[in-house]
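Sequence in, structure out. Go.
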Amino acid sequence: MSTIHHTKALVVGSGPAGCTAAIYAARANLKPIMVRGLQPGGQLTITTDVENYPGFAETIQGPWLMEQMEGQAKNVGTVIIEDTITDADLSVRPFRLTGDSGDIYTCDALIISTGASARWLGLASEEAFMGMGVSACATCDGFFYRGKEVAVIGGGNTAVEEALYLTNHATKVTLIHRRGELRSEKILQTRLFNNDKIEVLWDTVLEEVLGNQAGGAALPLGGNLTPPGVTGLRLKNVKTNKESTINVDGVFIAIGHSPNTDIFKGQLDMDTGGYIITKPGTPLTSIPGVFASGDVQDHTYQQAVTAAGTGCMAAFDAERFIAELESKADAAE
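Output:
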């Protein structure tokens, strides 16, 4: 039997934006509930070295940072629930959301901090080898490529960070970028170009992931079947249209992320990329009482520190919104 949870402020998502929103909402005595979501802790939980979050002189680990944030949210009064929101009705008051567990969540103010998920190329071969050599998380799967050669697709911060991390395991990392220059931070580019294990292929796109899906034919002399997995990539130079192949044991797709906003489509104003549109300089969405923070409304910066900042802003605005509701209710009595 489903349980109904009601709160003044419901925070959906538990990354830097969600945890910060929950901390500030709890300190405002809103008694918030935070639903952790499909990826508790957000993208920092699949990031190892974090050097750019203010307050730490030494490098820290992403999962540790999120454990601390969530612990802080809990300690100041946030109720944290292990569930994933699968449906939302923002046309009613209080807002009504449904979890994968079947539980119902109602709230006077809603803070959406559902983050973003890895974007894929959309190749049939990419999907075919998912989990068999194709990955979107170097920190999750890099260990499996110790002593092997891998490739990374992309040219932004994520791609360069993935490539650098993979040099801890792989003997060679090939970074494949469709343009002639990288979009990542200059300090990351310097590290990349100074790393002897990394080769960059410019103006190049991935056409097909090559490999063995079914186990292959028997080896000579009755040996074992060839294990399924990636064996190489078919590439194309976008300037010359010349095709080539390279041998790799794995490929990591690092071409950015898409906001996790599907359940709010048709209810909130969004741009063509699915990012929630907020009033400039605020977390205010097209529906009063609904606030968006973090990567769901930010396709420019997408940093933990900026996500945390918008989480703080969302909690402040939620507090003001609820105070106005209560003031109007008192006046009507």
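Check: The longest strand covers residues 4-12. The two ends are 36 Å apart (CA to CA).
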